[in-house]
Amino acid sequence: MIRKRRKVPNINATSTADISFMLLIFFLVTTSMNTDEGLSRRLPPPMEEEFQKEDIQVKERNILMIKINKFDELMVNGEICDITQLKEKAKKFISNVGNDPKMPEKHMKTISLMGEVQVTDKHVISVQNDVGTSYNTYIQVQNELVAAYNELRNELALSKFGRSFKGCTKEQQKAIIDYYPQKISEAEPKYQ
User: Fold this and answer.
1) If residue 86 lies in a helix (H) or strand (E), which one and from where to where?
2) Which pLDDT does position 16 carry in this prediction?
3) CA 20 to 30 Å from 129, out of 12, 15, 52, 73?
4) Average pLDDT in the 50-70 region?
């Protein structure tokens, strides 16, 4: 008997490109990519020429001076401090609940939706680091300061409007930001 040689059927490869494209899209969507870390800071607008000549005088009581040395050690207003204590010290400084004369001065201000309130909006938190300061410590200090503002704003939102800061309307958020404006100043790094 003679056997007929069977032909091998061709494989239909028309959908192979579609399948590989769909797999590629699937892996792109499901994999996480490293994102750069950074600080969200908005630079102030350039000052007009007439104001550039004047030095702004800030009372010493309105400044919280934070210094970071090349060994990543913190000093807050002349006292050695741990990063874990920084947020509470900043919150205490910014809010000045007891109107302490060594803390930022309070004054009356009219804020929409809140009326006439006492605020400490003349405060400044000055951060000065050494050239040898690690980037990690610098980021941790910035995070603690921003967390202090966020917690104070959230507490105020809960007490005034009965909801978290993120749950407030745009007008309510603006009023809270007017009450606790974020004022973090970067001083020139020290070279040693």
Assistant:
1) helix 83-95
2) 84
3) 52
4) 78
Question: Dihedral of CA 95/96/99/104: which sign?
Answer: negative
Which amino acid is residue 2, in one-letter code?
Answer: I
Average pLDDT over residues 53-73: 84
Q: One-letter amino acid identity for 164?
A: S
Residues paired with 68 in a beta bridge: 74, 129
Distances (CA, A) of 89 to 25, 63, 103, 137, 152: 48, 13, 11, 17, 12
Name the token pair of 111. Answer: 């804020």
Question: In this model, does residue 88 exceed pLDDT 70?
Answer: yes
Name residue 117's beta-bridge partners.
109
Cα–Cα distance measured from residue 38 to residue 85, given in angstroms and rounded to the nearest whole number: 22
User: 84: number of CA atoms within 13 Å, CB side?
Assistant: 0
Give the CA-trace dihedral at 21, 23, 28, 32, to 10 degrees.
-170
Buried b (16+ CB within 10 A) or exposed e, 58-77: eeeebbbbbbbbeebebebe
pLDDT, greater one: 70 or 4 = 70
Helix (H), strand (E) at residue 148 = helix 135-161
Span 117-151, pLDDT tens digits:
999 989 999 999 998 899 999 999 999 999 999 99
Instruction: For residue 70, give every residue at least 6 positions away whose Cβ sits within 8 Å of its Cβ, in sequence order, or none.
Output: 130, 131, 132, 133, 192
